[in-house]
Q: What sequence folds into this?
């Protein structure tokens, strides 16, 4: 009887010992893999929820490197076409749109940050290869845009300026903080007018003038709540949404008329 009691206790202890050994081996393996990777990076959250009271938010990017080097961070929003219009005075009286250029493949949001000034560690050819910086964005006019190269350059400059003024484009040298033990961090601010979609957060480790490692992490920015439901209904059922808006306006006017008639 006493041997029967000891046997389950022995098996339980043996199972616990095996689990501890397996867990230790797993942690050792993961640590070895982390050491083998020159760059490891992640985000504090991978979903930014936009509600009716959304006024902008911060997302923390953090990571570590296996040795010395500089870190470059690039955040790209989903591509979309963009139309840039030029206004001139018509007949010397009124301002009107006279010329326009449509660009394709324009990032809806674009932010660059680095551990120090680009000119100190990264050649222009390397930045052009990885499309780092607004000057290296591949912004091309659509086939229907009949503009000269000089006009395209002027419209391109205006597009970048408008995006920057709206807070959607930002280049911030020394925006990545290098901490002790080869750790780094950077705070990504997304304004209230940030477009929805899937963003790509790219992190590069530059050493001796070359990119030795890179990490790409997706970030989803999406509308949630009643505002998202109304937005999707208006986009997918535009006719019904228009009719509902008209009926609501008529009902509001009728109720207001009854209230003021009684008063």
A:
């Amino acid at each position: 009887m006493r041997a029967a009691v000891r046997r389950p206790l022995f098996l339980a202890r043996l199972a616990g010992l095996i689990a501890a050994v397996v867990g230790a081996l797993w942690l050792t393996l993961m640590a070895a893999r982390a050491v083998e990777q020159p760059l490891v990076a992640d985000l504090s959250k991978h979903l930014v929820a936009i509600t009716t009271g959304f006024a902008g938010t911060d997302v923390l990017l953090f990571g570590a490197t296996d040795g010395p080097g500089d870190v470059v961070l690039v955040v790209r929003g989903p591509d979309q076409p963009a139309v840039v219009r030029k206004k001139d005075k018509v007949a010397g009286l009124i301002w009107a749109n006279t010329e326009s250029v449509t660009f394709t493949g324009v990032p809806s949001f674009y932010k660059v940050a680095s551990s120090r000034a680009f000119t100190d560690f990264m050649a222009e050819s390397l930045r052009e290869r990885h499309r780092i910086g607004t000057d290296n964005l591949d912004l091309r006019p659509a086939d229907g845009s009949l503009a000269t190269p000089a006009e395209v350059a002027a419209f391109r400059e205006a597009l970048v300026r408008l995006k920057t003024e709206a807070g959607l484009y930002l280049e911030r040298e020394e925006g990545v903080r290098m901490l002790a033990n080869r750790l780094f961090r950077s705070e990504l601010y997304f304004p209230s007018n940030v477009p929805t979609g899937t963003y790509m957060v790219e992190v590069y480790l530059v050493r001796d003038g070359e990119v030795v490692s890179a990490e790409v992490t997706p970030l989803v920015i999406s509308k949630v709540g009643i505002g998202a439901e109304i937005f999707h209904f208006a986009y997918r059922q535009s006719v019904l949404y228009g009719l509902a808006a008209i009926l609501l306006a008529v009902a509001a006017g009728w109720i207001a008329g009854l209230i003021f008639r009684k008063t």
